[in-house]
Amino acid sequence: MEAERHRERIARCTALMRESGLDVLLLTKPANMTYLTGDGRLCAYAMVTRDGVVALGVPVTDVADVSALAVFDQIVGFDDEVGMIHSIAHYFQELGFEQGTVGLENTFLNGAMRGVLTHPHAKPAAVEAKDCTQVMTQLRIVKDDEEVALIRAAGGVAASGMAASLAAVRPGVSESEIAGAGEYAMRRAGAEEFYRSYVSSGRRTSIAHGLPTTAKVKTGDLVMIDLHPVVDGYGADICRTVCAGQPDAEQEAAYDVYLGALQATIAKVKAGVEMGELEDTMHGVMRDAGHEDHIFGPPIHGVGLDFEEAPLPAGHAFFHGEAAPPPLAANTAIAVGNCGLYAGPWGIRVEDTVIVGAEGAELVTAFRYGLTV
Length: 373
Known about the structure:
This protein is α+β, with helices and mostly antiparallel strands. The protein has eleven helices and 19 strands. Strand 10 (229-231) and strand 11 form a beta hairpin. The radius of gyration is 22 Å and the shape is elongated. The termini are far apart.
């Protein structure tokens, strides 16, 4: 069944390749390799031809493991980076591509890695490298039922982690300890890993990405906790802001505004809605409440095999090398609440992951709201 699922994905991929004028894909991004073949790991690559032939290159130590997990037609093991380059060159020749176009993941590759994949000893000189980002985005943006089930599971794990993190919030406890409590609980609940956990307190809640430090929470501090567990490769995103003590009236009012913006935006989520409308709703509620100067960041992003993936609001998509997204389709997974209300002395953020449905949104990170612990 799993093999059939991946072969169907490969068939859809080849159709998009032909539409995009690509003869072969050369993939190194773990999420993309996982999506098409069932296995994605570092120091490996997958080549997919327009005829649906899949060739994998992995460290020689991993050949047996990948052979048991992945869908492919050919596999080769290499000893080191030089061997990797030579194996790519061998596949180009073996697959019959001495000229044509190869699709590379421009939004994933750094300059050095792109240099490796386009090295004269790897890529034939007559093969032109093009960006294949949109091919993979179109394949992955709408989730199948199995993917949705895994995102739901990750949402439940995220709620377990949030409960543990909030239970750890008290004066004298470090941001790192709060993050650790959530991460330990998520592993016990079924997460095999998690993307970076964000925990910040006091003035640090007013920065965009508050990675946890050894700073101790003080009485009256706001504490922002953002967790991203991964279950069988798929993630969910949850964020809550609470107070280590009694919040003041200004903090309560700002929290109510943000929560209202989040809920108004989620209420508009359904198949056919534009990302721009959701972004305008989220930001608009905060602007109308007098917080126009306190907003930073796009409010929505896709979730799935990557922590942040398509669909993205148009402006954010541009900086990620993505095209502006089409109207949302059913079975798209998005996190709402990615932007914060940053007042200066403190910030507020609340975020949930939802699945787009034909008539509305399914909340998969259900967990209580409120500033009190």
